[in-house]
Amino acid sequence: xxxxxxxxxxxxLREGLEAALVVSILVAYLVKTERxxxxxxxxxxxxxxxxxxxxxxxxxxxxxxGLDTFKQQELAGGFLSIVAVGLVTWMIFWMRRTARHLKAxxxxxxxxxIAMGAxxxxxxxxxxxxxxxxETTLFFFSAxxxxxxxxxxxxxxxxxxxIAVALAFALYRGAVRINLGTFFTWTGALLVVVAAGIFSYGxxxxxxxxxxxxxxxxxxxxxxxxxxxxWYGTLLKGIFNFQPQTTVLQAIxxxxxxxxxxTFFLWPSxxxxxxxxxxxxxxSRTTQVGDGAxxxxxxxxxxTKNSVTGAPTGS
Length: 315
Fold this sequence. Notes:
Elements: H1 5-32, H2 39-65, H3 70-98, H4 102-116, H5 118-144, H6 151-173, E1 178-179, H7 180-208, E2 218-221, H8 231-240, E3 245-247, H9 248-266, H10 274-279, E4 285-288, E5 294-297, E6 306-308
Antiparallel strand pairs: 1-6, 2-3, 4-5, 5-6
Helix pairs in contact: 1-4, 1-5, 1-6, 1-7, 2-5, 3-5, 3-7, 4-5, 7-9
Region (Disordered): 274-315
Membrane topology: Multi-pass membrane protein
Transmembrane segments: 6-29, 41-63, 75-93, 113-131, 151-171, 183-203, 248-267
């Protein structure tokens, strides 16, 4: 039952925290600028985004299970898995690239929306959260559809969401201090590993749908050493989507995705010299996010070392 608990907890935690931080930034800005009367509009947009994301998940489930044949289900599942991996990969790199400017971008859009009227404020909040919500829903659906039980993935995902919301609230209130750059780097790397398994299994689905060849051409078969029904076989399948009987195409897809994506994600980028940072007015800066909380963005584009803190971290 809990074979897919951990990877879905990771999905809920990572993606949920991104969305929760977006909401925290919007709320903190309205509080700071004494526009609390606009808060119900933001919450309305957030609620609508959550509702649309849940409805999207229900629609996906209904559409897949409603297909007539096994091959149609495998074809749809494989296609959605590959699309989901593409989207989550784009979002991981997008967050790494834009995290340092996220607060400025969001508050700038919120200020423009306020000038346009109430509907624009709700729409802006909706779009900011819905982007995260829809992508998260698709990725979770793709990760969960390989599980034998629906309960384990769902419990893991919901646990991740709850932890993300609690953590975001604690950061907003200044109750905890963590290095967000380190958090998003490590969780991003783990998500890439999870995504590689989903990507590989998506090709397996397409093979079972007879869209791609090679279903019976195995790269290896270690089912005798790693029985699928053993506790360690179940654990490997749940965390890494590992199959004791892996086709050549699956192995190629897994390697072709994991190696370059993980390399580029963890590859250190050039950092600005102290002179360049000083010329920019100090690229390593601290900006207020919540009540006593702050986001400190360093000049490192690769890890985007953001730390939510009320005091210097020494990083």
